[in-house]
Amino acid sequence: MAVSDEGRRSEAEAMCPHRLVLEHVTSRWGVLVLIRLLERPYRFSELRRAIGRVSEKMLTQTLQTLERDGLVHRDAKPVIPPRVDYSLTGLGREAAEQVRELARWTDRRMADVLAARQAYDEARTP
Amino acid sequence: MAVSDEGRRSEAEAMCPHRLVLEHVTSRWGVLVLIRLLERPYRFSELRRAIGRVSEKMLTQTLQTLERDGLVHRDAKPVIPPRVDYSLTGLGREAAEQVRELARWTDRRMADVLAARQAYDEARTP
DNA sequence: CGGTATCCAAAAGGATACTG
DNA sequence: CAGTATCCTTTTGGATACCG
């Protein structure tokens, strides 16, 4: 996710900027967030529960990165208790759809991958 | 790339196996390797030079992971000095084409992302 | 509720030296 | 040439505590 604890930004951002967007989109939690939001908007905690086993910190970081890249829209309602809704922008929807296709492909081809792994492993542990 | 210095495999592989394939395919070096091999087969060092600034270790790990997943074919010629050619399998070509599409999308939309980032940054450093 | 701040453990990744 | 092995640094990510 290319965001350290200190929140620096300029170090890695300088070189090859579009590689970074790709990394944000295909990052561990980025993928899951985008695919979820493709379905409907989610609140923060709702998203956290839906994804499961993601820490608050990582979800926050992921959402902030995606928001900054213009892929996710953050709608913070000024109520108490706070309520924040996340949804995809047009740009985010384009990205999410491609990511979902890739995820579906891995689903469809999983059997082939598993077979390949087994063959690979057996070939070197005789 | 989910392969530590010790080369363990079973720890993470147990849960959600298709997420791992996705991570291999979209990993930092995985993306670059797949896109290069889409063009033509490459030798190890040739690939290393083509990608640039990738360590031997990471290239080796990436290639081994992709080979094990059945995406890359490794052809080691028994000659001296050694010569090893890497190419895509049918499965690998399918994956690589989707990854390339995603990479092209980030290229096409880069201007939008950059604009979004600038707006985001300006909004919070007044 | 929806975060931020801090600290710490684990994993990724690079540099170097060595080998068949 | 195409790796493997080792060591070390950097980054990632989780746990916890606290705040508006």
UniProtKB/TrEMBL annotation, chains A, B:
<feature type="domain" description="HTH hxlR-type">
    <location>
        <begin position="16"/>
        <end position="114"/>
    </location>
</feature>
<keyword id="KW-0805">Transcription regulation</keyword>
<dbReference type="InterPro" id="IPR036390">
    <property type="entry name" value="WH_DNA-bd_sf"/>
</dbReference>
<dbReference type="GO" id="GO:0003677">
    <property type="term" value="F:DNA binding"/>
</dbReference>
<dbReference type="Pfam" id="PF01638">
    <property type="entry name" value="HxlR"/>
</dbReference>
<dbReference type="InterPro" id="IPR002577">
    <property type="entry name" value="HTH_HxlR"/>
</dbReference>
<keyword id="KW-0804">Transcription</keyword>
<protein>
    <submittedName>
        <fullName>Transcriptional regulator</fullName>
    </submittedName>
</protein>
<dbReference type="InterPro" id="IPR036388">
    <property type="entry name" value="WH-like_DNA-bd_sf"/>
</dbReference>
<keyword id="KW-0238">DNA-binding</keyword>
